[in-house]
Amino acid sequence: MQFLTKGYQESTEDVLNGAIFDEDHDEMVIVKDIDMFSLCEHHLVPFFGKVHIGYLPRKKVVGLSKLARIVEIFSRRLQVQERLTKQIAMAITEALKPAGVAVVVEASHMCMLMRGVQKMNSRTITSTMLGVLREDPKSREEFLTLIKN
Amino acid sequence: MQFLTKGYQESTEDVLNGAIFDEDHDEMVIVKDIDMFSLCEHHLVPFFGKVHIGYLPRKKVVGLSKLARIVEIFSRRLQVQERLTKQIAMAITEALKPAGVAVVVEASHMCMLMRGVQKMNSRTITSTMLGVLREDPKSREEFLTLIKN
Amino acid sequence: MQFLTKGYQESTEDVLNGAIFDEDHDEMVIVKDIDMFSLCEHHLVPFFGKVHIGYLPRKKVVGLSKLARIVEIFSRRLQVQERLTKQIAMAITEALKPAGVAVVVEASHMCMLMRGVQKMNSRTITSTMLGVLREDPKSREEFLTLIKN
Amino acid sequence: MQFLTKGYQESTEDVLNGAIFDEDHDEMVIVKDIDMFSLCEHHLVPFFGKVHIGYLPRKKVVGLSKLARIVEIFSRRLQVQERLTKQIAMAITEALKPAGVAVVVEASHMCMLMRGVQKMNSRTITSTMLGVLREDPKSREEFLTLIKN
Amino acid sequence: MQFLTKGYQESTEDVLNGAIFDEDHDEMVIVKDIDMFSLCEHHLVPFFGKVHIGYLPRKKVVGLSKLARIVEIFSRRLQVQERLTKQIAMAITEALKPAGVAVVVEASHMCMLMRGVQKMNSRTITSTMLGVLREDPKSREEFLTLIKN
Amino acid sequence: MQFLTKGYQESTEDVLNGAIFDEDHDEMVIVKDIDMFSLCEHHLVPFFGKVHIGYLPRKKVVGLSKLARIVEIFSRRLQVQERLTKQIAMAITEALKPAGVAVVVEASHMCMLMRGVQKMNSRTITSTMLGVLREDPKSREEFLTLIKN
Amino acid sequence: MQFLTKGYQESTEDVLNGAIFDEDHDEMVIVKDIDMFSLCEHHLVPFFGKVHIGYLPRKKVVGLSKLARIVEIFSRRLQVQERLTKQIAMAITEALKPAGVAVVVEASHMCMLMRGVQKMNSRTITSTMLGVLREDPKSREEFLTLIKN
Amino acid sequence: MQFLTKGYQESTEDVLNGAIFDEDHDEMVIVKDIDMFSLCEHHLVPFFGKVHIGYLPRKKVVGLSKLARIVEIFSRRLQVQERLTKQIAMAITEALKPAGVAVVVEASHMCMLMRGVQKMNSRTITSTMLGVLREDPKSREEFLTLIKN
Amino acid sequence: MQFLTKGYQESTEDVLNGAIFDEDHDEMVIVKDIDMFSLCEHHLVPFFGKVHIGYLPRKKVVGLSKLARIVEIFSRRLQVQERLTKQIAMAITEALKPAGVAVVVEASHMCMLMRGVQKMNSRTITSTMLGVLREDPKSREEFLTLIKN
Amino acid sequence: MQFLTKGYQESTEDVLNGAIFDEDHDEMVIVKDIDMFSLCEHHLVPFFGKVHIGYLPRKKVVGLSKLARIVEIFSRRLQVQERLTKQIAMAITEALKPAGVAVVVEASHMCMLMRGVQKMNSRTITSTMLGVLREDPKSREEFLTLIKN
């Protein structure tokens, strides 16, 4: 349990400390298929799956493994998937001040299979888009195209 | 038979009772690949497959397993696939007052294979889109992109 | 041979007789992967594959197995693939007066492999779009998205 | 219902009439992936899937489509899968007097998904082996190897 | 929690009551890919996956959905995977007195991914073979061949 | 070598002679996955892969195997992939006067793997679009959608 | 038709002329997935698929494309699949005097789909094994293992 | 180490010397799935994957293997993925003066799996688009469509 | 580097402490697809892949996550793949005194792709079998069958 | 051409120099999917594909990339596939004196597709087994099992 909620003791600042670099790059950077494991705050039942992150840098890029660390900080807490998605997007926005951020989370929820409904195969998808990635449908579509297969 | 039509004794209100939460989230929430089993009202022949649901919340989100429960309520009746699709979409609209709802149902119909035509491999796809998801082609396309594998 | 050309003795009216229902549904209905087998009228050589049908109902829906029957009526004749595609689309338009119809046929032609060229792997795709599905690129794109795996 | 039980009016003799040929061939002949649809006699619930047939001819071979017809005769009845498998094997043995016969049936049973247990993904496999294919483990293994993809 | 441990209130006798039939069949009957969900008794952490069951009948066959029910009885308890596998095999042996029984369980254990080791992709396979299926390597191999894709 | 360059002795006119039919069809006709084999004119090294052809007829359609023959005429020469693509598109335009033509060639080049770079897995894609298929982005997108698996 | 039966004018001797080489090799040589197209002699209906050939050389090996040519000689005739399989095996035995020969043919028969039975997905597998490959079960198994994916 | 950084001793000019040809072609040329291996400059940890390159020629085309060579020049250095992507795009722009260039790099980073985070399955995607491919969303989308499967 | 070699500070005893349970089970227990990452001791170049472990218990079973921990202890050192395989097998033998142990390691070696040979796709497989799993070919074969897909 | 035949200037001794290590390991070591490219000596036509190598060490193991180098030495010559397979096996036997060696080569031959026969999809498989891997059918089968996907 302690391990599953260790996200509370970590902050984005600690994690990103020193891993933000100046790089003359302004096109989308995507890290996809980051494994994620979390606990639903309503019934303490696990949900897990993958996180896909994209951002449009404004001359600042972050070490790639740091994006995975940010996922850890917010998934190792009692969560709902909608909030987890938003918190990851907000944390990246605060740290990098990028032109845009996109986060998509695809997860299986144990509550869908361990209780009465028993829908073994269903998956839940949530997304948060900020900045250019929210306003410009073409960027949004490009992100969605690139995270597929 | 009793089991197959038990949907008549259930209402969306009973099922959703207490499972609607306030959450500051306004991007699309999708639950895909919900297994579905129903009976065609014309020949009492089974049809079954998957339901994909998406909605754009207006600060209200629903417990994910409840969407699967709504599928159960309307599929455990004598149905036609077109009406089933619409009823699921309407029920979600009434319960959550979301900005938009999308429901896609993909099913195999026993009548396509147990009778003369014998088309073993064909599948039927129906959809209902309401609100923003009906009017805004970009949202619609985004939903269709995200439910594909 | 008699079996292969039995489509000449059948009409859409006979087949659809009594299988058109009033249903308050106006979104696209798709039946995909309907197996098809026909004979090329030029060399009496077989071609076969799959038919995908979509239509936008105007309050009238057809029993799903009837769409497969319409495919049978027109494929069990001496044909060319382009005409087969069009005839299926026209027959549905006449019977249902829908807002739009889309038919896509994907087939392997024996003439591509039994004669000199020997292109074992090639497939031919033809399509006919009528009404809204012809004029509105978004509906057309939605149909093409939904018939893909 | 009449269509589903039309197997009762057909006999193997009628179907095979004139389609048994002398051919100097004594190695295994396999027809695999024959689509099958039947009704469980206990609850009148459908089960369907594929039949794989192999036999070791003794100078007599049968027209291939006739093996599919034999599957039709016995599946278009009220059945249990174990008996269906055996009846197909027995019918081939009587008609061809082969050195050996093997029949494997893989099916999905609606009763596994429309009632309480709801195991959408499970499949049932039954087999009957007669003659050399029963006694000689190597022939048996060869048959099982060849029917796999 | 009550739902997850409801297996304690059920017995194999109750479940199989009246669903054992006399059928003249003595070859292997397999039900594969039965979805399973259970709780590890050491840390109350979920594990889930698929159960494959085979048995060699001695003139008695069981309704197929009953095998799925037996899986439910023993998985809806606090378990370890090794014991679950054995209990399913023992229950079938007692009920049907078959010539042999084989049970294979493939499962993902949450403890492998929610705690320190984080091996997201690993799966655990256990098996119990009784009677002929234990002693005769050829039957054993045949069972393993048939449960593979 | 003679075989590989026999394309020089053939002309589109000879090949299409008598295989152009009047057919009242004006939607896209596609033949995809036509196997192709050619020789790079710079190093006489083979390149091979698939050709996808689409055209929008103006009341004239061509026998499908003829499109494969046109591919043969131009690939059985010393070529570069860019020119091969264009020549196929031009030949179809001249012969059929269609409203539009699209040709996509995907090929593996031996020079990418037999020489120093050793990139075993890379493939080269070239395309030529003429008429409506060049000017109308929607037609172009529809063609690209339909040639994908 | 002339093209489809041109196999009658060709003999194995003509084809193999000069393409048999001395090579100190005595382990199995396999050429798999040779495309094949033929005509059933009973109804003049096409059947087509793949041929897999293996042989155990006795110091003589044959140019690989010649094995494909032998397939052509015997498939471009009126055939039944069982005889085609045997003729290919016999021709190789006569030409190379190998220690053993194995031929497996997997084919789809148009008669299974253009006539009443309509089993679109079934395939027929025949095999002929001669010499060591007939007598030694281990060689036979090795051949079957190597021709699988 | 010397091998891994040999890119420093090579220039695009040397590599392309004499391999730029005049060809009357102005549609997109794509070379996809070029294997790439590089070293991250921050921790000297490897990252590797695939590069996809597209350009819109202005009457000048480059020998295809040269594009692979340009990938080698810039990947055999200490790099970050964002900069590698940009350098490849810039080098092609300088050498060919094309109407547009697109470069997409998909890579696995060892730092994501050898250190604490242990995200074995995640991949990073970066892109640089220049000229027409940057400004025209339709060209951009076409490129992204063609590099997918 | 410290992280990559932390295996030296851990012992199997510490890790297994208290996680060995008495369970009346004597059939094979398999944990497959355990992700592994290690460093080759000759050039300090990474190799990584999957470990499959099987053992035949003698009334003692180990907590499943502990097998993954044993993989960590020996892979987080400077290694060669052959030795890593053997050390995992030996550690399990010492801790559990099982009737038999089997360990298979499949890995990609960076040295195969970052240096001259550039074989991007090759993988190395090593195995160690002890006790019954070494001496009894049937157990060995059963293990190999079960770890395959 | 020089590049394609550079294998003549290299010897196994040079390549293996110093890369043979003493390691207490006597179970099979396999390196599979080594890309290979060669030229057929009869028509100077390319053939290419994959090599799978296994050996049973006698206390001596070889650096893994050296096995790939041995493949290079013998494939970069004018060859026939049967001889290439044998030479690789012999070279490993001489260098390591192992208890057994197995080499399997799967290749596509350009001559099968650039000349008359045009069998685009066929592949040729050759193998050489020496020592224990030749005499012991179980080792042979184990090798063949492990090189399959």
UniProtKB/TrEMBL annotation, chains A, B, C, D, E, F, G, H, I, J:
Positions of the GTP cyclohydrolase I domain: 2-147
Keywords: GTP-binding, Hydrolase, Nucleotide-binding, Tetrahydrobiopterin biosynthesis
UniProt signal peptide: none
A biological process term (GO) from this entry: tetrahydrofolate biosynthetic process
GO cellular component: cytoplasm
Alphabetized InterPro entries for the sequence: GTP-CH-I_C/QueF (IPR043133), GTP_CycHdrlase_I (IPR001474), GTP_CycHdrlase_I_CS (IPR018234), GTP_CycHdrlase_I_dom (IPR020602)
Descriptive protein name: GTP cyclohydrolase 1
UniProt key word Hydrolase: yes
UniProt similarity note: Belongs to the GTP cyclohydrolase I family.
Pathway note: Cofactor biosynthesis; 7,8-dihydroneopterin triphosphate biosynthesis; 7,8-dihydroneopterin triphosphate from GTP: step 1/1
Keyword GTP-binding (UniProt): yes
E.C. code: 3.5.4.16
Enzyme class: hydrolase
Gene Ontology molecular functions: GTP binding; GTP cyclohydrolase I activity; zinc ion binding
PROSITE patterns tied to this protein: GTP_CYCLOHYDROL_1_1 (PS00859), GTP_CYCLOHYDROL_1_2 (PS00860)
